């Protein structure tokens, strides 16, 4: 089995790119691969807990919790997150908070890296 | 595992979106990554600007005065100060009429590195020599 690291930069709402990143992570994890998911830029807004799933909008919370249960490591860029007014106490449990070097360190040990750019 | 070479390819203009800025800050983060790695392991990014990515790199920026944010010029100086290789596509600079001497340097901060304005063929070689290529 291989290690895949996904860098996810787009926002949760407004495009389907974020959904693609999560579904890809799930597919890889289901095949038994080790998956790391890094959020930066607007994607960091998706780690806030208590998201209301209105059907006109994408939602991240329940999918992120499911990925965590499957053993996917998820980390948000702390600077990007606090810049958006989200504090650690408001985040989804078990999502890590770290600096950008977390992403580079995961890349170091990865067989494949997929960088999914933002807006 | 030793050193892992990365190519950061910036294709979008600075200030238009956040991603092009994040390419620079993620690259700079290589300086502290060793605290998360085993002894002897390193990550070496090369930061390459191509296409519209060459826009917004010029010296003389007033982003802090006008917007209250760090300018791209300041970030570029920091990349040079931490000894990152920064390559800017010569053909794309010419396409947009940006003179090569408009690129900032960080001599005033004591940096030895300078921005390298190079033909695209050299950026392609960086891509070929890297284990992972990240497009911003």
Question: Could you walk me through the main structural features you see in this protein, from its secondary elements to its overall organization?
Answer:
The complex is a heterodimer of chains A (119) and B (136). With 119 residues, chain A is α/β, with parallel strands linked by helices. Chain A has one domain (3-45, 62-114): Hypothetical Protein Ychn, Chain: A. Chain A is built from 4 helices and 5 strands. In chain A, strands 4-3-2-1-5 form a 5-stranded parallel beta sheet, sandwiched between helices. The relative contact order of chain A is 0.27. The model of chain A has no long low-confidence stretch (mean pLDDT 95). Chain B has one domain: DsrEFH-like (Hypothetical Protein Ychn, Chain: A), CATH 3.40.1260.10. Chain B has 5 helices and 5 strands, in the order βαβααβαβαβ. Chain B has helices spanning 19-28, 63-67, 72-81, 90-95, 120-129, and strands spanning 3-10, 42-49, 85-89, 116-118, 132-135. In chain B, α4 (90-95) links the parallel β3 (85-89) and β4. In chain B, α1 runs parallel beside α3 (72-81). The radius of gyration of chain B is 15 Å and the shape is globular. Chains A and B meet through α4 of A and α1 and β5 of B.
Cα end-to-end separation of chain A: 32 Å
CATH H-level homologous superfamily name of chain B: DsrEFH-like
| Uncertain regions spanning at least 5 consecutive residues of chain A | none
Largest interface chains and counts: A-B, 22 and 25 residues
**Topology pattern of chain A, helix = H, strand = E:** EHEHEHEHE
Number of domains of chain B: 1
Q: Roughly how many Å is the radius of gyration of chain B?
A: 15 Å
| Name of the CATH architecture of chain A | 3-Layer(aba) Sandwich
**SS content category of chain A:** alpha/beta
Give me the strand/helix succession of chain B: EHEHHEHEHE
Major pleated sheet of chain B? 5 strands, parallel
Quickly give the CATH architecture of chain B. 3-Layer(aba) Sandwich
Give the class of chain B from helix and strand content and strand pairing.
alpha/beta
Rg result of chain A: 13 Å
The span between the termini of chain B is 26 Å
Name of the top-level CATH class of chain B: Alpha Beta
Q: Any idea what the CATH superfamily of chain A is called?
A: DsrEFH-like
Bin the strand percentage of chain B.
15-25%
CATH class value of chain A: Alpha Beta
* Average pLDDT metric of chain B: 97
């Amino acid at each position: 089995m291989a290690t895949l690291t996904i860098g996810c930069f787009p926002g949760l709402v407004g495009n389907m790119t974020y959904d693609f990143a999560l579904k890809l992570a799930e597919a890889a994890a289901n095949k038994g691969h080790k998956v790391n998911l890094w959020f930066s830029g607007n994607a960091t807004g998706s780690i806030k807990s208590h998201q209301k799933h209105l059907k006109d909008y994408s939602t991240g919370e329940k999918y992120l919790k499911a990925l965590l249960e499957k053993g996917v490591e998820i980390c948000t860029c702390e600077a990007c997150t606090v810049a958006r007014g989200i504090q650690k106490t408001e985040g989804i449990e078990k999502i890590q908070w770290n600096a950008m070097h977390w992403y580079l360190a995961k890349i170091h040990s990865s067989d494949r890296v997929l960088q999914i750019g933002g807006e | 595992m030793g050193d892992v070479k990365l190519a950061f390819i910036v294709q979008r203009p600075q200030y238009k979106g956040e991603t092009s800025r994040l390419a620079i800050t993620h690259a700079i983060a290589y300086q502290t990554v060793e605290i998360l790695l085993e002894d002897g392991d390193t990550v070496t990014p090369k930061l390459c600007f191509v296409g519209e990515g060459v826009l917004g790199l010029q010296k003389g920026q007033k982003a802090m005065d006008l917007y209250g944010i760090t300018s791209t010029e300041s970030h570029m100086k920091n990349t040079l100060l931490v000894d990152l290789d920064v390559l800017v596509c010569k053909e794309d600079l010419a396409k947009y009429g940006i003179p090569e001497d408009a690129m900032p340097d960080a001599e005033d901060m004591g940096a030895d590195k300078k921005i390298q304005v190079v033909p695209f063929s050299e950026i392609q070689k960086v891509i070929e020599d890297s284990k992972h290529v990240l497009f911003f």
